[in-house]
Amino acid sequence: MKAIRKTLIATSTLCAATSVAAADLEVTHWWTSGGEAAAVSELAKAFDDTEHNWVDGAIAGSGGTARPIIISRILGGDPMGATQLNHGRQAEELIEAGLLTDLTELAEQEGWRDIVNPPSLLDACTYEGRIYCAPVNIHSAQWLWLSHSAYEQAGLDVPANWAEFVTAAPKLEEAGIVPLAMGQQGWQQNLAFGTLQIAIAGVDAWRKVLVDKDAEVAAGPEYAKVFQAAADARELARSSNVQDWNLATNMVITGKAGGQIMGDWAQGEFQIAGQVAGTDYTCLPGLGVNEILDTGGDAFYFPVIEDDDIKAAQLELASLIVSPKVQVAFNLKKGSLPVRGDIDLSTANDCMQKGLQILAKGNVLPSGDMNLSADTQTQIEDLMAEFWTSDMSAADAQERYASIVASAD
Ligand code: GAL
Fold this sequence. Notes:
binds beta-D-galactopyranose; D-Maltodextrin-Binding Protein, domain 2; five-stranded mixed beta sheet; alpha/beta
């Protein structure tokens, strides 16, 4: 197989060099939970089927831990061959410094503009008209994951929306079950807050705040309701003391918690645990209130490295990432949606089918990483970390949030 691929690549227009030697490509990412590891191994397998070798550079912890390490390695002159980041504005600084490979030629040869769906994903990889990343998936944050066994133990029906979830909480607590699982990290608390914004304040108010950066709406009555809902959610999560998101998902899987607000990557954990959507757990997009999802997700960036073999390996990986084969294999394990609409995902489970339908209807929004600079995101995550772990009032949190929005870039 490697020999065949080698001949193909050697004659390909992508690689002007007459021959390409096998290269070891270090690929950094933060996919270390069970479901994530299963997905990334699909990518590694496909790359190892070429003449090149995947050198796994997993960084344990969350994106919040991994991103500064990734970025400082590139800035500090110790670049990896390829790296995961969320598509959006996280790589802006690196692109401006000329440290990331321009993939425009490859993207044009392969027609990414016609393939990638929605087109906003490729826009999120584009800087001043040039393409710098290969999107691998669409991940949305706005999901409530519910444990059937938890509700059964408490003698309750599985809630159909956020209001029912809140109403059911006291009975769950009586049965010794934590209503809301929550990992104690700012990005997870902020993810839940962002999801509540869309469900409680609605899309119009959300757009004014997150897209137009309208601090008056952030300080106004619609957002006061969101902060009150976040304060209520904080109460429901007060006996959840895990850190990592997948440990919180595990509380739902094992019936120790009623639910978790988490992105659709949680799907990978249920799958690895052998649970079946609709039988063992339920997923409610938009908290069962507002079926609209953001189109965040992951993309691979390729630091500039002056070595022809590495460059060829980088382009090969970029090309594989958007290929139909990898799109199917990777996303089925990851719980994410593919970045192209022309592939067969009929084997996807209930939750992914719900996501695909929402995407097909075009009920999508840009993600926080697309709307806000990395600096603004960090300020909001820090505020959320403080809010969720203290008794800060909803009004105080709202005031501080509105002032971050006022100076957001
Ligand atoms: C996100 C990433 C996902 C997911 C999650 C938790 O930033 O887009 O792929 O795995 O972090 O690690």
